[in-house]
Amino acid sequence: MKINHYINYLALSLFLSTFLPTYLFAQTYGQNGMVVSDHYLASEVGVEILKKGGNAIDATVATAFALAVTHPEAGNIGGGGFIVYMKSDGDVTTFDFREKAPLAASPTMFLGEDGKIKDNSNHRGLLSVGVPGTVAGLYQAHQKYGKLPWKDLVEPAIQLAKKGFPMSWGLYKAALRMSEGDESWDIMKDYFRNADGEVVSPGEIWKQAALAKTLEEIKKHGRDGFYKGKVAAEIEAYMKANGGIITQEDLAKYEAVERKPVTTKFKEFEIFSMPPPSSGGVALIEMMNLLEAADISSVEFNSTAYVHLVAEAMRRAFADRAEFLGDPDFNPEMPVDKLISKDFAKARFENLDLKHASKSDSSKYGQLYGGDHTTHFSVVDKDGNAISMTYTLENSYGVKMGSSKLGFIFNNEMGDFNPIPGVTTSTGLIGSDPNLVAPEKRMLSSMTPTIVSKDGKPYLVIGSPGGRTIINTVFQTVLNVLVYDMRIDRAIEAMKIHHQWLPDQILYERNLLSPDTRKALEEMGHTLRPTTNIGVLMGITYDPNLKVYMGAADSSSEDGAARGY
Ligand code: GLY
């Protein structure tokens, strides 16, 4: 059975890799609204809600719950994330539902007696789980700005879980990997199996009965359906039985927070993004300001000068990110206003050498790439409300553990804290204070849900997964649209690079940067390393002349789709 699946899969992959790349470059139009997400069924759920008279917040809630069923590697109720919301009057707010460290957490909780991280415990096993925030965040956003009843927004996800949906080839590849993985991946062993104990094959209907029941509790009781009662009791029991520390008290105390966005002006546009505890918005704005100071508009896309300038902006923003940023509730003195100011950008680029690469000082700050399995979706409605939402389990399928009675997977987001106080190394560890573990603290994130407006109306709604690469992926896509006038599908697919201060190297998308440019960059002192793909963007732009939205899902998303109406 399994061998047949593999043969089919290989034949289809060959067909797709031969014919699909040109076919996938396409944007979708919508006059009344648009949802672009990592799964076509979730996008369709969101659009149906818009058609029923729901607003962008309603569509967001329904899409997020649907993704928790159809895109479980990152769509979730066991993780956390951020919403940036631009209302039709141009006002912008954000919701922070980032996971928190449990009450029993401490700065040295991952260390053995030798002072080193024990058994990769900040990424593996239940100590790596942060108190989930997704349900609280969606509920708070809906309570404040939603229009349709809550139960109508959870119901489509319940139906998808109960009645099932066809297994895609993309999901099937993960299903094979997850079903026979590490011993500790308890929930994954049967997660993708049918009643006969076989991994559900492509085209076969995949049902999730336990998840449907958990979603029923959330539908009936709102936030309390997750953070109190049966579900909370089972979470605590599961944690206790398997070495975790999250309790019912942690869950009951969890609150999402509405925060002001970070913002800057760039040409005739205004950029709004997520403030700390995400580092994404601050770094994005710092880099946009740096490139404005460097007159990026006069530099040709993908030239040596372009890659050099963009990489140097990234180097500086990531050094500042590592040094200064963390949970604002624990770091009241964080210099956010300074980091996003135009004056700071000018000063920060004073030592820029247009002919030579700067050097990242390894005695200071830097960080390795984080988990790259997050998911982003973008929503607009007929009234011009727009939402940019990114949420995550950290790694693909999070910690790959969870109670099979509840049917959802927990995050391993505690890995986004700095694990060893005071230890910062050139190979990537960071030990600075702002992002050390503390009870009830939110770990620093790189998620960068972003909305750009023009004349007070949404012009670009954009975001991506990808750990620390998220910030740079969103940054370059914003440049592609605002500076290089690319339409949304081209902006998403265009060549991306990633530099994050340390390691001191430029990661670039293989086959998309010419050998001549790479050679010229190496001669300037840059180190280059190829990678297959950076980012999985989901974006929407608005054409004010035609009065139409255009959406595109990154071709690297296996099941992603833009749906407009
Ligand atoms: N888990 C990825 C991030 O929050 O940056």
UniProtKB/TrEMBL annotation:
Pfam families reported in the protein's UniProt record: G_glu_transpept
Q: Cite the annotated pathway.
A: Sulfur metabolism; glutathione metabolism
Highest taxon of the lineage: Bacteria
The UniProt keywords, alphabetically, are: Acyltransferase, Glutathione biosynthesis, Hydrolase, Transferase, Zymogen
For this protein, the record's Gene3D superfamilies field holds: 1.10.246.130, 3.60.20.40
Q: How is it modified after translation?
A: Cleaved by autocatalysis into a large and a small subunit.
The EC number(s) attached to this protein equal: 2.3.2.2, 3.4.19.13
Gene Ontology molecular functions = leukotriene C4 gamma-glutamyl transferase activity
The record's catalysed reaction(s) read: an N-terminal (5-L-glutamyl)-[peptide] + an alpha-amino acid = 5-L-glutamyl amino acid + an N-terminal L-alpha-aminoacyl-[peptide]; glutathione + H2O = L-cysteinylglycine + L-glutamate; an S-substituted glutathione + H2O = an S-substituted L-cysteinylglycine + L-glutamate
Family stated for the protein in its record: Belongs to the gamma-glutamyltransferase family.
| Oligomer and partners | This enzyme consists of two polypeptide chains, which are synthesized in precursor form from a single polypeptide.
Checking PANTHER family in the record gives: GLUTATHIONE HYDROLASE (PTHR43199), GLUTATHIONE HYDROLASE PROENZYME (PTHR43199:SF1)
Q: What name appears for this protein in its UniProt entry? A: Glutathione hydrolase proenzyme
Q: What is the lineage of its organism?
A: Bacteria, Pseudomonadati, Bacteroidota, Cytophagia, Cytophagales
